[in-house]
Amino acid sequence: VLQILDARIPLSSLNPEIERITAGKPHLYVLNKSDLADPEITRQWLAYFKSAGAGCIAMDSKQRGRATATKGLIEKELSALMERRRSRGMVGAAIRVMIVGIPNVGKSTFINSFAGTTRAKAANKPGVTRGKQWISVDSFDLMDMPGVLWPKFDDQSVGMNLAYTGAVKDDILDVETLGCHLMAYLGAHYPDALTAGYKLPQLPQREPEENDIAYGYRLLEAAGRKRGFLISGGEVDTERMAKILLDEFRSGKLGHFTLELPE
Ligand code: G4P
Questions:
Q1: Is 8 left (phi over 0), alpha (psi -120 to 50) or beta?
Q2: How far is CA 130 from the centre of its chain?
């Protein structure tokens, strides 16, 4: 089971239901979109997964051919199994890899990069049904699963992380509230990126007892004012600023951020 995670939110993008259903199968984790994540924290996550005994690799699937690096990792992870097969004369049997991940995490991009020019659809495999698709690449059969998002997230911060990164559609959440929370996080963890990105001489200080919404709102105002997003009466159009913030966060224009640390 190859679970593709978003390197910016490795925990929030990890589907606990898939973990449960596939317990007992070899697992590999791909920290995708690592080009958008904080490289130091990605290193910590790699060490974290490895210390838990799981295969893990950081990935930028948009870079052509990068995903092929996972072939070696899969073979390493399955070396004992492959050796057993060889000893029984089962040479040439393809390794079946189920590829899972939340919507928009980069499954299609990863598979295309993994398959490169040798990409071929294997139509006559058992188990081909609507929505699932087998793709043969070298000694691998990849099963492309449509994006699976677990039905409920108990933790509100998980929902917000999924919204920041674009796994959950914006229109089901209030963009301004989302912008406030993201600003407050970036203000606390990446203040330099905010001052540089929005050309602020210095970041407004957080008041004692001020909550994320209130502090984030002040940051949105400061950034929006600097960008000249004003509405009548000289007020800042904070909703417009929140949309811009989310766009710039998602595209990596504002910097490389990771929103979750390994415990
Ligand atoms: P999915 O199958 O899991 O739903 O995801 P998909 O591959 O469609 O990728 C979703 C978006 O994420 C795409 O952007 C894709 O280019 C981008 N993406 C995938 N992997 C990476 C990565 O490693 N790094 C970065 N920076 N982006 C990645 P899009 O805006 O929907 O399309 P496009 O603008 O790239 O055409």
A1: alpha
A2: 26
Residue 45, H or E segment: helix 39-51
| Selected residue with higher pLDDT from 255 and 167 | 255
CB 110 within 8 A of CB 4: yes
pLDDT in tens, 229-244: 999 899 999 999 999 9
Ligand 1 centroid to residue 107 C-alpha, Å:
8
Residue 44 structure tokens: 């910590």
Q: What is the pTM of this model?
A: 0.90
pLDDT tens-digit readout, 202-225? 999 999 999 999 999 999 999 999
166 Rama class: left (phi>0) / alpha (psi -120 to 50) / beta: left
Between CA 202 and CA 143 the distance in angstroms is 50
Handedness of CA 161, 113, 111, 79 (dihedral sign): negative
Cα angle, residue 28 at apex, residues 15 and 75 outer, rounded to 5° = 155
Q: Choose among 28, 30, 53: nearest CA to 42.
A: 30
In single-letter form, the type of residue at position 159 comes to G
Classify residue 138 as left (phi > 0), alpha (psi -120 to 50) or beta.
Answer: left
State which amino acid sits at residue 231.
I
Q: Which of 61, 98, 102 to mutate to test the pocket of ligand 1 (most atoms within 8 A of CB)?
A: 61
What is the atom index within ligand 1 of the atom nearest the CA of 32? Answer: 23
Q: In a mutational test of the pocket of ligand 1, which residue from 30, 62, 63, 111 has the highest number of ligand atoms less than 8 Å from its CB?
A: 62
Report helix, strand or coil for 143: strand
Distance CA 83, CA 89 (A): 10
Taking the alpha carbons at both ends of the chain, their separation in whole angstroms is 24
